Each structure stands twice: as structure tokens, then as C-alpha cells.
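To: structure desk
From: M.T.
Subject: fold request, one chain
Message: Could you run this one when you get a chance? Sequence is below, nothing fancy, just the single chain.
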Amino acid sequence: MVFEVLVPMDNSKMAEKALRYALENHPDAEITVYHVVGGPTIMMGDAVGLALENNIQESAKEHSKSVFETAHKIASEYDREVTTETGLGHPARAILKRAENFETIVMGSHGRHSEDITRGFLIGNVAKTVFT
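Reply: Done. C-alpha cells follow.
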């Protein structure tokens, strides 16, 4: 049986540290890097442009490219391969749904919006939501 680890990532340093941790501590595991592109909400944000695209899935994959490039670069430092997947929607919910098929989740304690206290207060911390 193959041990599978899910590593949700955004463009944050904490996400990069989480991937490094997974690669170092699970050397025989299959690692899947999962980037969630948020769906349009009343709070607007990055995902508003997605709602205007003809092909939302393709646009979400395009938004994921820089995260996946970073993930592949980090994995190559460990002489490893990672699988990449793009999710769409509310990050915590998408991560929890995708995590059902994995033995372990490794993720940073906070991501790219950690310094925006208003966003954290109104929406909540994704890691906190996933692990509670």
C-alpha cells in the first residue's frame, strides 16, 4: 500500500515549508500538492476574475501555475516528484473534501493572507478550519 500525503499550497513561505517538511519526513510517500482557487464570493477578492472567464477550470489551472512551479522546484531539490491538482471553491472546504483519500495532510499554519487581519477575522484561518 502506498502512503499518500496531501500538501495544500498557496504562494506563501509557510506553504513552501510545509512541502519541505512532507518531503523530508515522508520520503517514501506519494505527495500531492493541492492549490485551491477560491470561487467568487460576496467578499470579491482574487476569484472575481474567474467568474468572468469562459472556462473556469482552465482559468483556475492557470492561476495555479506559479504555485506548482515552486512545488516542482522544491521537490527537485529532494530528487522527488510531486503530483499537482487544482481545486476550485472555498479553500478549507475543498481541502477537506480532497483530503478524504489521503492518510496525512501537511500544511502551513498560515498563508498568503496572514498579514491581512481583516480577512483573517472575517473569513478565518484555512489551516485552523481544516484541523478543527
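Reply (cont.): Strands lie at 4-8, 30-37, 83-88, 104-105. Let me know if you need anything else for the meeting.
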